[in-house]
Amino acid sequence: MAELRMRRVYEMGAANDDANDGLRVLVDRLWPRGLARDKVRIDHWLRGVAPSDELRRWFGHDPDRWQEFQTRYHAELRGSAHPDLALLRHLAASPGRITLLYAARDEARNNAVALKAFLELQQGAP
């Protein structure tokens, strides 16, 4: 299984070609505001693994909704047949390192955190 890491796409150095990141995968449905596409290395933009617009709006980055957001998001992922999720599962099952890139300000409560937990559960990781 790949080592899964997360990084805020706006983080210092995130826009640069950081060899320690391995494969860089943007997991947001929307392109990060103010970030020029030619200024950042992103190997895959997998919009199909992002939470639905409805769920994203409901969550609104409200910390009080974090636990329920994870439950609902994981349910969406379990019910998804989107090719982006199939690709991410395939990549996560391979050796190496994957850095999940996200734009949210809250580094502890965002879709990349929930997605990483989902993938680790699927792979049987601790």
UniProtKB/TrEMBL annotation:
The organism's place on the tree of life at top rank: Bacteria
InterPro entries: YeaO-like (IPR052552)
Protein name per UniProt: DUF488 family protein
Origin species: Nitratidesulfovibrio liaohensis
